[in-house]
Amino acid sequence: MDGVSVSDESTPWMRLLRELFGDDAELALEELQRMGMDPEVLAAQAGLASSPAMMEHVLGQIRNLVSQSAGEDVNWSLAHDVARGVAAQGGDPSVNAAQASVHRQAVSRAELWLDAVTDFDPTRLEPRVWSRAEWVEATLPTWRVLAGPVAVSVSHALGGLLAGELDEDRDAGGLDPSGLMRSVSPTVCGMHMGQAAGEMAREAFGATDLGIPLLAEPRVVLIPSSISEFAKGLDVDEDEVRSFLALREAAHVRLFAAAPWLPGQLHALVERYSQGITIDLDALEEAVREAGMGDPARLQKALNRGIFASQHTDEQKATLESIETLLALIEGWVDDVTMRAAAPHLPNLGALREMMRRRRAAGGPAEDAFANLLDLELRPRRMRDAAAMWAALHARLGAEERDGVWSHPDLLPTSDDLGDWTAWVEAYVTRGEKDEMDVELERLLGSDDG
């Protein structure tokens, strides 16, 4: 800046600080310098001093960030931008017409194969073939609903800790930089939400990978870039991998459409769980002190270090068990139906099935991201038991009565039932016979009384 002090009112930095903090601009500048964020030094290192246009662009970004966070607990606009940026890492080209056609054909085949093994109808909504960016745009509203309460709680806790740090500075004779930190907590939590959503976008094959529907209406979605990258690590033809994943996605969507109560119940359970989460303030404070207050990116990463209280209430434990059981039942049904539908068509079905089971059991970046947001592992821990249960029901009653279990939530087995699924299947299969015996017995007893 050619010898001109950044505190000079004519400098772009000082004009911005004056715009944002008014009479506190000088205090804000001193606090920035104290935290190692001297605008003059940073501008010189980035080569901004010799580029007025670039300087104005950076200042505009800062101005927008602060104004977006004003009055918000979480900067959702920033969450959106970060999610898009993370999803695009390594490239995220738009889906071309040829790719869209290939994947829609895979969905059409999957629907025909499913028609042979379930009476659940396909959705009437057209399938979508999306880039990762399009996946982010379509699913972020659901993440905001599911994870929003926790993000707000973290933001409040983080804001309180940052304010406490600043109070200590004032008590020690320091300056009052509270205006400068006003947007830090919403910014950090917005970055955290966006990072998680972006990481999920990089792994998603469709809109049902985690077993929870992420769209307002059940619709089949495929993400070609993720499917192609996944197929490269397998000794299976990509077309066969695509067909298998299309089958799973279409089976999920049929189930969610045929049991309209199911998406709502899943979302309600996750929301109930998230509303009961408490923050470990000691762990959060330690993370903040290690990261330092002046770097939102480091603060955001610090939120991944176990900031949630490790002890769950009895209600939380019961809700978690309900979520895991419902996910296991969903994944088990999809597994059984997919096997029956694909058996005549996919020669590597056994390997693909086992690969998917291991992937779901071990988790991955998507599940880890969800765990960081909600302290919730979306693992269908008893999926093999559930798949065996649905297969046994099919063998005893056929596809129509197997699928009839989804007609009402009260018909589904509980977690305890799933632990002894053979007894549950026997009870379910024979329940009609017992009813008929009871009716006949009552008829005979009534006749005797006569």
Low-confidence stretches: 170-180
- In spatial order, strands of the major sheet run 1-2
Number of domains: 3
Q: Biggest β-sheet: count, sense, barrel?
A: 2 strands, parallel
Strand-pairing-aware structural class = mainly alpha
* Euclidean distance between termini CA atoms: 109 Å
Entry summary:
It contains 20 helices and 2 strands. By secondary structure, it is mostly helical.
Structural descriptors:
68% helix; mainly alpha; 3 domains; 450 residues; 2 strands; two-stranded parallel ribbon; 20 helices
Characterization of the model:
With 450 residues, this protein is mainly alpha-helical. It folds into three domains: 12-69, no CATH class; 76-381, no CATH class; 402-449, no CATH class. Helix content is 68%, strand content 1%. The chain has 20 helices and two strands. Strands 1-2 form a two-stranded parallel ribbon. The longest helix is centred in the middle third of the chain and has 40 residues, at 132-171. The N and C termini lie far apart (109 Å).
Walk me through the topology.
Layout: H1 12-21, H2 25-34, H3 39-45, H4 52-69, H5 76-87, H6 97-115, E1 128-129, H7 132-171, H8 184-203, E2 221-222, H9 224-232, H10 238-258, H11 261-275, H12 281-291, H13 296-302, H14 314-342, H15 349-362, H16 365-374, H17 383-397, H18 399-404, H19 415-419, H20 421-449
Parallel strand pairs: 1-2
Helix pairs in contact: 1-2, 1-4, 5-7, 5-8, 6-10, 6-14, 7-8, 7-11, 7-12, 8-13, 8-16, 9-10, 10-14, 11-14, 12-13, 14-17, 17-20
